[in-house]
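Page 47, continued from p. 46.
Same chain as before, 179 aa.
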Amino acid sequence: MSEKKVEIGKAIGYGWDSVKKDFWYWVGIALAVCVIEGIGSGGKGHEGLGILGIFLSAWMSSGYNKIILKYYDGKKPEFVELFTQLKYFWRVLGAALLIGLIVMAGLVLLVVPGIFWGLKYMFTVILIIDKDLGIREAMAESAKMTAGIKFPLFGFCLASLGVMILGAIVLYKKLATSK
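Result:
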C-alpha cells in the first residue's frame, strides 16, 4: 500500500497553471456559477430564495465538478456541460444536505468534530460525479481516501483559503487603482 500524501504546492501550482493557460474559460465558468448561485442567495426581504439557492448550488456543483474532472483528464469540456449534469443532481443535493447536517452537528460539539467530519467527507460530491457512486458509497470512499491525512488536508484547505484571500486583495487593489 502506498503512503498517501497531500502535495499542497503541486496542487496549487497545477491550479495556477490551468488558470493561466485558459484564463477566460475559467473566468466564464466562475461568473456563470456565481451569477446562477447568486439568484438563490436570498437577502433581506427575499429569504425564500434560500431554498432555491440550495437547489441551484447542487445543480452548479454537478456541472462545475464534472468540468474540473474532465479538465484534469486533459479534456477541455464545452461551457454548456456546466448546465447539463442533471444525472448527478439529486445525489449531489442529498450528499450536500447530509454532510452539511453532519458538519453542523460537529460544529455544535465544540467545532473540532465538525472540521474533522468536513475533511472526512470532502470528496463525496467529486466521487458521486467521477465514479457515479451513490451517496453512502461516496461517503465511505471519501472516508477511506482521507484516512490518516486529515491534518495535511486541513493545511491544504488553509493554504487554498490563503490563495483566495490574496487573490481577492490583488483584485480589490487593481480595481481600486483603476478608478
